[in-house]
Specification:
The protein has 494 residues and is α+β, with helices and mostly antiparallel strands. The protein folds into three domains: 25-179, no CATH class; 230-322; 330-492, 2-Layer Sandwich (Heat Shock Protein 90), CATH 3.30.565.10. The protein contains twelve helices and seven strands. It comes from Hymenobacter roseosalivarius DSM 11622.
Length: 494
Amino acid sequence: MLTLHKSAGDGASAGLLAKLVSPLQESWKRLVNIGVHQELTEWQGKRVRLLNGISSVTIAIYAGYVVVFFNSPDWLTFRICLAGVFLNLPPLVLNYYRRYDASAYYCVLSVTLLCSFIAVARRYNGVEYYLISNSIVAMLFFRRFWKILLLFLLNVAAYFAVRYAMQYVKPFLYVQDSAYFYNANVLLFFMTLFFVVSYFRAENFRQEQLLSQKNETLGQSLEHLQNTQAQLVQQEKLASLGALTAGIAHEIQNPLNFVDNFSEVGMELVEELREELAREPISEKRRHIITVLLDDLAQSQKKVNEHADRAGNIVRGMLLHSRTSRGERQPTDLNALADEYLRLAYHGLRAKHKDFNATLTTDFDLQLGPVTVVVEDISRVLLNLFTNAFYAIHKKASQLPPSAYKPTVSVSTQRAVKGVLLRVRDNGTGIPLEVIDKIFHPFFTTKPPGEGTGLGLSLSYDIITKGHGGTLTVNSGAGEYSEFTIWLPESRVP
């Protein structure tokens, strides 16, 4: 294993360099932000910083020439450079007093005048080439096309005017030993042109990137809006269907109650007839015939009462299915909620079958964090899944000897791609392959008549998919196991 160690000398050198660079960075930051305030737009702030930066760099270049030519016999160049220092101070002052347009005009026009004068006065200085780069610099400072065009034409006219004047005006600021400035100025011209074009190119790429990000954000917002609109339309349809279902169920409930009540009254009347028959002096043959008829009538009334109760359960399930949830979503500990309703469903089954025992296995993700859900609705889903799981293992346990079968219900949670997963698995009777596609249909049940309404899984499916934007899927092996998987999207998981 290779280990790299940084020496103390390297650390000291880095610290010393940071101490030297930090004041320079702070000074540069203060210079380029002269006159910048919060009311400026992004482009205006960028323009002010660019003006300050150009002026500061130009002043630094002229100041360097001043130092170089301070003890030189070329006093003319020294004075020109010293004048250049003071001529580039006004943009900083104008920006400080928030005269931004004046600062921009000064920056462009001062270069035009100064370069034109020096080019004519010294001829072989090469300064006239700055007029070419200066003609496109206006694009950095102004947005209106007529201003850019005016300054561009002004610099082009100045360039050709200077080239024409150089043929007739004798250089009166020319120094014999300063001809080498021509190459230096041409080099600086190309560098200036390069940096201006590079700036435009970098800004174009930046704007393109920003536009792509905004387009992506708008696309996501549009997709979210379309999904929300689809959910609202679906909820409106479900609300209308729920209202219709509720109305029908209420209308059915009233006559169904009469059937149920009169069947119970009928059974009571049969018992009263039995008592009266016992006191009547009739032959044994007739008594036997009447008793058989009463037994048939009692059996008929009992069946009517049983099926009326079953129909009543179906109607109550329809009312529950059509009810619109008004619960609010709130951050919830899904692990604790699942564990609570797992125990509740288990003890509910144990209350009916005291000799039944099962193994409960939990594998909760401790880093899951709170999940934003409608607690009442998710509780209903969990209770339904756990009740079905315990029903399946109890049914299988009743068919096998205790030594051959160990009833088990497992619950697990985990983070998934863009969401959260919750799995409920049992090793019970499973679901036949030919009916597994119908398992979430309303009124479809695999339980015997009277033991299920076929609305529990349908209601759970609607709560997860339409109420929370998730998915509810099932995987099963007939006679071996069933596994239900709930996925809640990340938008519901803060």
